[in-house]
Amino acid sequence: MMNNIIPVSKLFKPITILFAISFIFFNNLSAQFSSSENSQNSINAIAFNSISITIGGDFIVNGSFPSLNTERLDQFVTRIYNETKATLLTAVRSEEGMVEFKKNFEKYALRNIELKRKDGSELIIDLAMFRLTGNFEHNPYLKDGDVIVFPAYDDKVHFVSIDGAVNKPTEFQFVEGDNLQTAIFFAHGINTAYTDITKAEITRLKNNGETIETVEVPVYEEYPLQVGDRIRVLYSELNKQKYQVLVLGEVNRPGYIPISKNSTTLKEVIEKAGGFTPNASLKFSELVRNYDSFNTLRKEILARSVTEQNLMDLEETFRSNLIDLELLRMYRTANLQFRDTLYFKLDNQLRIFESSVSVDFAEINKPDSETSKFIVNDGDVIIVPQKSETVFVWGGVRESGYYNVDGQKSVWDYINDAGGYTDIAYGDDEVYLIKGKSRDWYLVEDHEEVPVEAGDYIYVKKERPIQEFWWYLGVIGSIAGILGGVATLVLLFK
What we know:
Layout: H1 8-49, E1 50-57, E2 63-68, H2 73-89, H3 95-105, E3 113-116, E4 122-125, H4 127-133, E5 147-150, E6 159-164, E7 170-173, H5 180-186, E8 199-205, E9 212-218, E10 230-233, E11 244-249, E12 255-258, H6 266-272, E13 286-288, H7 293-304, H8 313-331, H9 338-353, H10 370-373, E14 381-384, E15 390-395, E16 401-404, H11 411-417, E17 431-434, E18 441-443, E19 457-460, H12 469-493
Parallel strand pairs: 1-5, 6-10, 11-14, 15-19
Antiparallel strand pairs: 1-2, 3-4, 3-5, 6-7, 8-9, 8-10, 11-12, 13-14, 15-16, 17-18, 17-19
Helix pairs in contact: 7-8
């Protein structure tokens, strides 16, 4: 019987596979041990560098917290504040709670912070100064056992404010030793756009809060400040400002046009804007100016909407309140009968909305016209709409809409273009031509000589619907009830 001999080539494959599996297993095992060892080393390194820092005083949270010896005070304080704030906010469930939270925890002192070391030494930290200058002397590394003590802070009491001829008007936390130069430093220095800046005015309340003391001091003097001081760096009128006018609509180069103070004409502005496009409607162009609070807001919205579309909602937010306030002011001393108030309210709202200066843009190219000589102001907004070659027909017609202007057509032709009268139209004796610019109403039957122009409106009045029997019965019943009550009173007093 012959022995079965297995070829070496067949033995080699299983041995190779077994060897490969063993190699992968031991390699992974080694990697796991290595990873575990590295992880352990990292933990050991963190533990070796970990220190304990205590926070006390007027801060969002007090206690001892872990830190690293590579962490500076500002980084540590900001981290603890943000972590605690996020935790506390999850517990706030109401608007009142959010208001209370912001009142108590939104701000903390950045100056006059005490840093107490284990060796008994103490440092006074000024994080506001560090954030402004980047000087790490005001933001040291932490050491194990450090104690950070925040002073009591109320931004409505412990403050100094500065404005006027400075680069950044501001309000900052007051600490003993602050002087006028400290305030100017926090305001990023004197604004070089102003000239001949020599004095600062310091307003200071007496302890009873009823008396104000005002002093003027040289602007470069280190005049000592007190808590609650309000500083104005005095200046003459700044005439080198960013005077500009905003031009929107049908001009060749819309946008902001730089102007001079009280000397640039409307004609010059349009020329700088590249002139009118062929589609510009000079008849309906307007210039918006600040005449009252509503139009100040309206102009600001128009200006900002060039880059910030979401601000357009502000007009709707404030419009009704401003109108109501203005109407109440008008009514307060008015001697109007009740029947007069409806028309007055309508006219008053038009007065508020129509802030446009009376300027005829069609006269702008005439050298001697008032329009060409009209002086624009800083902040004016010029709106040039697209030319319209249509008339709008609506009311008691079958197909309301815009219809192309034809100089040969009469009002009646446009009504025919709109499909003629509906069944509820009054007819020829109640057709009105409303002029597009002035909105004047003309009864066509009496003013057929008035031409129909682009932008005009044709309105066909509709008959009032006849009320049902039960509506009239209800009115009669109400009147009868009132008369019955009056009759009863008369009988009682007889």
